[in-house]
Amino acid sequence: MKYLMLHRAFKNFGDFLIFERGLNLVQRLKPNVEILIGDASESLEAQFNKAELKMINAIVVPGGPGIRRDAFPNIYPLSECVFRERIPTYFLGAGCKIYPYFKNKELLPFSSKTKFLFDYLCTFAPIGVRDIVTYRVLSLKKYPAQLNGCPAWYSHKRVKNFSIKNIKKIIFSTPAYAENAFQFIKILKKFRQKNPEIECVVSFNHGVPQSHQNSAWNIKRKMEFFILEWARKHGCKIADMSGPAINYDIYDDSDVHIGYGVHTHIYFLSMGMPSFLITEDSRGCGVLETLNTPGVVNNFPFKSGLYFKTANCLSSMVSNLNVPVGLGLKRLVLRREDISEVLYNDVMLEFERNLSSFQHVLQTIDSFYEKNMKPYIVSLP
Fold first, then answer.
1. Are 367 and 149 in contact (CB under 8 A)?
2. Do 58 and 119 sit in the same domain of this protein?
3. DSSP state of 258
4. pTM for the complete prediction?
5. Total structural domains in the chain?
6. For residue 304, what pLDDT is reported?
7. Other C-beta atoms within 10 Å of 240: how many?
8. 56 phi and psi, to 5 degrees?
């Protein structure tokens, strides 16, 4: 028996975490299966010859952005031979991304080719999804789905079992959307001011930006560089979390995560460590709702009065930081909401209450594993 597992783990911490833990799940639950590894972003003919493709008994996609309008062929350019040879294909824990996210936006349009792919998947099993939002998205379109959770939930070890008493080290994960950069800095500044003895580490899941001079950079990378300069100037440590699992000990050695990184949040919870997620789109809302943990829902659309242009605030911030001015940020819009005080109080109160809001998390993850993910994988051919 031979499986082909497709991944999109090229740089982002979350993509590597999904793939590594998804691969581990299949290896443990299907020990007699030979596993080939393939690049989900390339056609299969470009990676394997016809003889190799004919030997594949099933294709498994652990997770990633599979439930979207252009899933096929833009995200997963599966080859014609998959459909011609009727190779069984499975999503273990696919997700969707809706921004800005509200529950009434869950009726997503799918292209005709994506509908063809989803119909094909459903001939073998319900589509495995990672959160309740994605489950509703597919249900609204009448596609059978099973809520397996994200493969990244399932760790073979747990570090602290939500038993941390004191905060000595905090991981702050950076936003995915540039408009949240100012809000992030306010949060970081609040914790630095209130507890200067706490070690603060700013993590970059897509890698630490190296230079602001590259004109090919998009606005997100420019704002990450701005955050990087601010953090360094104010005594924060920097963690490059891109790539495979070589840096996970940076997270294991900390006490709490605060920030926007969905898979940083998932990693902490899976290891029995508290995490306070600030959501930016349906990905964050989905995991908060599914695992029922504390967080801040922060995915408002751009409306007059909720945001302000960066011209004044950014110029003053840049002058105080000695950051090069030519960042190309004049048209960027930033969030005005300052959630730093509320978030700080919530985190401190949660520790005073011995992390009571997290005590159910590992049991919930174990339940999803035993009732959903494990039997789903075991049932594969």
1. no
2. yes
3. E
4. 0.90
5. 2
6. 30
7. 15
8. -80, 125
Residues in the chain predicted with pLDDT less than 70, given as ranges, are 211-218, 299-337
In-domain check, residue 164: no
Instruction: Report yes or no: 307 and 334 within 8 Å, Cβ to Cβ.
Output: yes
- Whether 283 and 97 have beta carbons less than 8 Å apart is answered as yes
**CA neighbours within 13 Å on the CB side: how many for 120?**
21
pLDDT at 302: 39
> Is the domain of 240 the same as that of 309?
yes
From first CA to last CA, the distance across the chain in angstroms is 8
Please give the structure tokens belonging to residue 285. 């809302």
**How far apart are the C-alpha atoms of 62 and 245, rounded to whole Å?**
17
Provide the domain limits for residue 255.
169-358
DSSP letters spanning 195-231:
-TTSEEEEEETT-----S--TT--HHHHHHHHHHHHH
199 in the same domain as 115: no
In a domain, 333, yes or no: yes
C-alpha–C-alpha distance, residues 39 and 47, integer Å: 8
Q: What is the pLDDT of residues 95-129, one digit of tens each?
A: 999 988 888 899 999 999 999 999 999 999 999 99
Q: What is the pLDDT of residues 4-54, one digit of tens each?
A: 999 999 999 999 999 999 999 999 999 999 999 999 999 999 999 989 999
- What is the domain-level CATH number for residue 281? 3.40.50
Amino acid occupying residue 380: L
Ordered DSSP codes for 25-70: HHHHHSTT-EEEEEETTS-GGGTS-HHHHHT--EEEEEEES-SSTT
Same domain, 141 and 223: no
Quote the pLDDT of residue 167. 97
Q: Does residue 336 share a domain with residue 288?
A: yes
**CA dist 119 → 144, 336, 360, 381 (Å):** 10, 43, 36, 19
Residues 6+ apart with CB under 8 A from 40: 6, 7, 8, 61, 64, 75, 76
Q: How many residues comprise the chain? A: 381
The rounded distance, in Å, linking the Cα atoms of 342 and 344 is 5
With beta carbons less than 8 A apart as the criterion, state whether 62 and 377 touch.
no
180 with 296: CB under 8 angstroms?
no
Mean per-residue pLDDT over the chain, rounded: 88
